[in-house]
Amino acid sequence: MNTGTDTSVASASLPMTKALNAGLRQAMQNDPKVLLMGEDIGPLGGVFRVTEGLIAEFGDKRVLDTPLAESGIIGTAIGLAMRGFRPVCEIQFDGFVFPGFDQITSQLARMRNRHEGGLIMPVVIRIPYGGHIGSIEHHQESPEAYFAHTPGLRVVSPSNPHDAYWMMQEAIKSDDPVIFFEPKSRYWPKGEVRFGESGTPLHASRVVRAGTDVTVVGHGAMVSVLLQAAELAAAEGISLEVIDLRSISPIDYGPILGSVLKTGRLVVTQEAPGFVSVGSEIAATVAERAFYTLEAPVLRVSGFDTPFPPAAVETHFLPSPDRVLEAVDRALAY
Amino acid sequence: MISPNGAFEPNAAAEEFLPYLDRLTEADHRRFYRDMVVVRKFDTEAANLQRQGQLALWVPSHGQEAAQVGSAYATRAQDHVFPSYREHVVGMIRGLDVVDILRMLRGVTLGGWVPEEHGNFHLYTLVLASQTLHSTGYAMGMQLDGSTATGNPETDQAVIVYYGDGASSQGDANEALVFAASYQTPQVFFLQNNHWAISVPVARQSRTPLYLRAGGFGMPGTQIDGNDVLASFAVTAKSMDDARAGQGPSLIEALTYRVGAHTTADDPTKYRDPEELAYWVARDPIVRFRSYLQGRGIEQEFLDAVDEEAADFAADARRRALEITGPEQSVIFDNVYAEPHPLVAEQKAWLKRYEASFDEGKN
């Protein structure tokens, strides 16, 4: 049985789940040391079906349905990486990564450093994250700052199916551990995926919509919110330049600083709580490096500094296009 | 197998393991004894070094020598060993220069050696039980790359992981047992029950003998007298043979005693009954094995020579420990990542410029 996408064609319109599936499949075909681990990722194909069909194609020695224990998944993946494998671990939901947090931060992230460079830790941890899906507690969170704060980890998040396809392959090729945040609200909208093409380094942010008045930055599901905001702003004659961060650690400041040089105004956005966040880091760095080009303080639009709320009120919690535009207006008022 | 007075008196449960003793020659017996004596002397010297400000910390192994020496000799060259942080003599037996252990405790490295170049003796792990999962993953890898259970005992590999009664309460230790049982990994969990997790007695960790937990995970568990080096060797040899042969994981609980402090930062007189200590000192693994060897007619000259060798070994370790010098400051930044990382690179360059600026001021 092969339910995988036909990647012999030049491109296809796919949802992100299928694009990730194609990326995983390509990586597994390219390198026999790549293996998948996680809960329900075998015959079920994962709760989001990202690994659908892969156990049938590659067998249960390449796709490991594991016991239900996140620390066990990460800890054994570390051992497998020490042995020369390249494990890709699926964490079922954002809020379930914390039982594995110690193995990620105290072990995985430091293993190469502790070994004085004597080994590599090519482990990818896939985490579906973020809100907008109306789910219950622990299923809508954005914990990326915890990982970005940890030296030794790389942290990325694609915003669209094509990026998901190639970024997954690049993450698996990386000899460092990569935390791969998949914006689950963007799992289903389709987008054009160009197969076989990459050519972009894993940690490259990108201007996804050019503009002149205010720079807005976000990652994952925020990018589509920013694009909506840019459409609304354009109708009012305000030109937003939208930057897709793509990489959260390290952050590629080139496009951000280049844009701020042009606009003089920056709004950073994220679903995560704003206190000690990725947005805070960008605001601080841009203030340090582009102080004299700024016409206004860098503003943040974030989730509130509260637990992710009950789904019934999540639209009040999550940054919307209107909340972004409110900050844009404030930036323009200076 | 060996009673506390040194007599060879195997009980009924020991019988199935007795054939493994046939593998041991007289020379092996001498090596067992020598290693136990040497590491104890080294252990004492390392504690002295700490007291003299030459090490940040020391982790004594006094009392646990038989459990460690016997199990270490049951491994084969192709096996992999995942220690906790007290298995100095296991490292020594696997080919590690124990001064490399002192490098970490002297604060010049977070690791200390390359496992593959030192008998596959992996780095010490300071977060309790973390290494149990790494070892299980490693053993899964042996299965996946076909390095075990081929039927060739000369090449088939297995893993032994050391942990303790305190670590047995950690989630990771339990998850490792779950994964090991699920995937039937070629692996031995060697649990040294030294009765104390710093100040907390084993009774607080478990209401059941720890080896009985193995059954709950679906693997064999055996409790041994951890101060009997022959029992430790024989039972571990069987378990490792079984693991290499594809018969899955098992657990050994070695009953022993931490005669010293948890570390040099600890004061066991605040929480331990002197009578308990006296009980275990009377069961000292080295004294016991010496009695056993004497019963077999070992010459006094050998015993004296071992004492002399141990003194020389410790003095040499001390001398070389004092010669360990600190790393360059660039070690802060090197090897955080395998591939270039702009933030780390910037900070490395900045620190170099910043510190060089002080030198410029002197000129």
Lay out the secondary structure.
The complex is a heterodimer of chains A (334) and B (363).
Chain A: E1 11-15, H1 16-30, E2 34-38, H2 54-58, E3 63-65, H3 70-82, E4 86-90, H4 101-107, H5 111-114, E5 124-129, H6 144-148, E6 154-156, H7 161-173, E7 178-183, E8 190-194, E9 206-209, E10 214-218, H8 222-235, E11 240-244, E12 247-249, H9 253-263, E13 266-273, H10 278-289, E14 299-303, H11 314-317, H12 321-332
Parallel strand pairs in A: 2-3, 2-4, 4-5, 5-7, 6-7, 10-11, 10-13, 13-14
Antiparallel strand pairs in A: 1-8, 6-12, 9-11
Chain B: H1 18-21, H2 26-51, H3 65-73, E1 80-82, H4 88-93, H5 98-105, H6 130-144, E2 159-164, H7 171-183, E3 187-193, E4 196-197, E5 200-201, H8 202-205, H9 213-217, E6 221-225, H10 229-244, E7 250-255, H11 274-281, H12 285-295, H13 300-322, H14 342-362
Parallel strand pairs in B: 1-2, 2-3, 3-7, 6-7
Antiparallel strand pairs in B: 4-5
Helix pairs in contact in B: 2-3, 2-12, 2-13, 3-10, 5-13, 6-7
Gist of the model:
The complex is a heterodimer of chains A (334) and B (363). Chain A has 334 residues and is an alpha/beta fold.
What Rg of chain A is obtained from the alpha carbons, in whole angstroms? 20 Å
Biggest sheet of chain B, open or closed, and with what strands and sense?
5 strands, parallel
Strand content of chain A: 15-25%
What is the end-to-end distance of chain A?
A: 61 Å
The CATH homologous superfamily of the largest domain in chain B is named: Thiamin diphosphate (ThDP)-binding fold, Pyr/PP domains
CATH superfamily of the largest domain in chain A: Thiamin diphosphate (ThDP)-binding fold, Pyr/PP domains
Overall structural class of chain A, as computed from helix and strand content, comes to alpha/beta
Strand order of the largest sheet of chain B: 1-2-3-7-6
CATH-level-2 architecture of the largest domain in chain B: 3-Layer(aba) Sandwich
Number of strands of chain A: 14
Q: Structurally, how many domains make up the residues of chain B?
A: 2
Helix content of chain B: 40-55%
